[in-house]
Specification:
681 residues; alpha+beta; eight-stranded antiparallel beta sheet; 17 helices; 27 strands; 34% helix; globular
Length: 681
């Protein structure tokens, strides 16, 4: 018999999964057809797929060997107490032992509506789900702070390092609970991920023994000096536990017995240390806090490959089998982590590259069970990410580790996505192993998903060539990003002394830059996408039409014209909130549905990088300030870091398909961080 609380949690997660179908990566074609408004998908009929005898992708080779330097990066990251468990932000785990202290809350009533909150995640939207307001989370987990609301109960969870120990404090807050009975806080102690160890309740403490050490765990559940009374809670828990009515603060500590006052002192000390570190960044404080906090809560330990990584959000990762690494999403996470945690920056870049497929491309997604988008990639931003980190930290080993997979990926685009020297998105559905649950592979929908702009109106009329597996559509954005990729790799090749490869990359950049130049329209004053079947240019404009500035492919005169006629034009892109994913006069703008009109951090970031290549300081500064203002609005009010934002109202909470804690939303603030710290060339 499944406990009622677990059934309720399962139902909530199921509803979340259904709601999340709006994110079209890897969704069955029938569902995509419903969601892609205005798009003709030409999906084949779905048939029942045969059952297989393993949950893991077949025929997958082991990931490439790690360098000694990168193995040390992962070893340094995977140490100590932190919120490593993807399933709950209120669980503390000690690495490498895997010892876990889970916090849960039991809702008590005098009749039939008890419930148990075993896991808590940031951003759940299902009716009745817990609402988590994330407070600070330091890079190393030395201080964490959040608030939870559930069933009318409100409480604060804080943790702090005390040397090699951890202390945890649960504090009830004024709420509007829907029962007369107080809730019960329950701390369960066990070992995760099949790690060896034992846990045993011994009187008023829990004794744990791992292969490395014996660690006692204590609780202030009962007054000091009182005799422990037997605790009986009718919940199937996975290890010994402490419990107490949450009517007053309750603390847990490891290593030695601590009073509430001692626990509070340890927490206050680490909180002050965190606040001091933020204050040292001056006017950048709010965005530094936001990036450190967001990546802190989103960073997990992934036991399948024994690695630390920062997937987009825990809600996404839980639904994708324990983790999901999206290509450009995680490269951007690496870039942002570079402001405060070099090891985490390297980990996010390298783990994304280490998911490269046998064909030589970084997949659109990689998820639990070694399943990936074996048919399609995503925008090539890896080389500019790696080069940026190398320029910042100057670690040659990192450049050496990243160069070969980046080079294979760069060559792959030219072989598999080239149509007469134009680049187009595609989906190679015959690649093996085939992800049989992914109805978009080898289809027009799959090709559009490769763009990362899942339902962009740019592709509403684009035709898919089923024989060549490509959209017959010359894409300004893809070509620009690819040229920037060639340029960055060429600089890396030069640094590594690879002269022949440097020449190869420079020659490739020249060829595609010349082809991109043919997409310039004097009449429109901007680079235009081109339908390669009809030969007609598309006048539907999105931020990707400005990406030639990122690739140094626009002349100064062309860049100025694009900025003046289009970027700064309030009827197209400029307004209080910038920059919409389709121009404001486009009929699809009014949809405000995902990539149909909403504002996205990665688009603003890539445009900002392009503006940095031209002498347009006033525009660049105002663009950065507007981006930051959009970000700060919901960060300051709700501690939300949205996946996307409404381009009319500037909110992210107007729809259910904008994750509230999706780390690339912080790129909107990171732009201002770059501008504030900009060193003129």
């Amino acid at each position: 018999m499944v406990p009622a609380a677990n059934r309720a949690a399962t139902a909530m997660r199921l509803e979340e999964s259904l709601n999340r179908v709006r994110r079209l990566r890897g969704v069955a074609c029938g569902a995509v057809a419903v969601l892609l408004a205005g798009m003709e998908l030409h999906c084949s009929a779905q048939t029942r797929t045969p059952a297989v005898d393993s949950r893991n992708a077949p025929g997958q080779a082991s990931p490439p060997a790690e360098s000694a330097e990168y193995r040390q990066v992962q070893q340094r990251l995977a140490q100590g107490w932190n919120t490593w468990d993807v399933h709950s932000v209120i669980t503390q785990v000690l690495l490498p032992e895997g010892l876990a202290i889970h916090a849960g809350l039991k809702h008590n009533t005098t009749e039939g509506s008890d419930a148990f909150l075993q896991d808590a995640l940031i951003g759940r939207l299902s009716p009745g789900a817990e609402q988590v307001t994330p407070g600070p989370h330091s890079w190393d987990g030395s201080y964490t702070d959040l608030r939870v609301t559930w069933h009318g109960h409100e409480w604060r969870m804080q943790s702090a390092h005390a040397g090699s120990d951890v202390v945890i404090l649960a504090t009830p807050l004024p709420g509007n609970r829907d029962s007369v009975l107080p809730p019960t806080i329950i701390f369960t102690v066990d070992f995760l991920w099949n790690r060896s160890g034992t846990t045993m309740r011994r009187g008023d403490f829990i004794e744990t023994q791992s292969s490395a050490a014996k660690i006692p765990v204590f609780c202030t559940c009962a007054p000091a000096g009182s005799q422990p009374t037997p605790e009986r809670i009718d919940i199937p828990l996975g290890g010994p536990w402490f419990s107490a009515d949450l009517t007053r603060p309750v603390g847990v500590s490891t290593g030695k017995r601590r009073t509430l006052a001692e626990i509070q002192t340890a927490i206050d000390g680490q909180r002050q240390a965190y606040e001091n570190s933020i204050q040292t960044t001056g006017r950048n404080g709010p965005i530094v806090d936001a990036i450190e906090t967001t990546l802190g809560w989103d960073t997990i330990y992934e036991p399948g490959r024994e690695r630390v990584v920062s997937p987009v959000s825990r809600v996404w990762s839980v639904e994708w089998g324990g983790y999901v690494i999206f290509d450009w999403d995680n490269f951007f996470a690496a870039t942002m982590a570079g402001i405060g945690d070099r090891d985490l920056a390297y980990a996010n870049a390298m783990e994304t590259l280490r998911e490269e497929t046998a064909e030589g491309f970084v997949p659109n997604y990689a998820r639990g069970g070694d399943w990936k988008s074996f048919d399609r990639s995503e925008p090539p931003v890896g080389a500019i990410t790696v080069l940026g980190l190398y320029r910042k930290f100057n670690d040659r080993w990192f450049l050496e580790d990243a160069f070969e997979p980046l080079l294979r990926w760069n060559r792959w685009w030219a072989v598999h996505r080239d149509i007469d020297s134009f680049l187009a998105w595609g989906s190679d559905g015959e690649n093996q192993p085939g992800n049989l649950d992914d109805g978009s592979r080898g289809t027009r929908a799959g090709a559009i998903l490769e763009s990362g702009l899942d339902n962009s109106p740019m592709y509403d009329t684009a035709t898919y060539d089923a024989q060549k597996h490509e959209l017959e559509y010359a894409d300004v954005g893809l070509m620009s990003l690819y040229i920037a990729d060639c340029d960055a790799l060429a600089e890396m090749a030069q640094a590594l002394g690879k002269a022949e490869i440097e020449k190869e990359l420079k020659d490739r950049a020249v060829r595609y830059r010349a082809k991109l130049a043919t997409l310039w329209s004097d009449q429109e004053g901007i680079f235009l996408n081109k339908d390669l079947q009809t030969g007609q240019s598309s006048t539907r404009l999105s931020p990707t039409n400005f990406y030639p500035m990122l690739a140094h492919a626009a002349t100064p005169e062309q860049a100025h014209m694009m900025i003046e006629r289009h970027l700064m034009n309030p009827t197209e892109f400029w307004s209080q909130w910038v920059i919409p994913s389709i121009e404001r006069i486009d009929p699809a703008f009014h949809d405000q549905d995902y990539w149909r009109g909403r504002i996205w951090g990665p688009m603003n970031y890539l445009i900002y990088l392009g503006l940095c290549n031209y002498d347009e300081p006033a525009v660049r500064q105002e663009f950065a300030q507007k981006s930051y203002a959009l970000f700060l609005r919901e960060w300051s009010e709700h501690r939300h870091v949205h996946e996307n934002y409404n381009a009319v109202t500037g909110t992210g909470d107007d729809v259910r398909n904008s994750d509230r804690f999706y780390h690339w939303g912080a790129l909107l603030g990171y732009i201002e961080y770059l501008e504030t710290n900009r060193i003129e060339k």
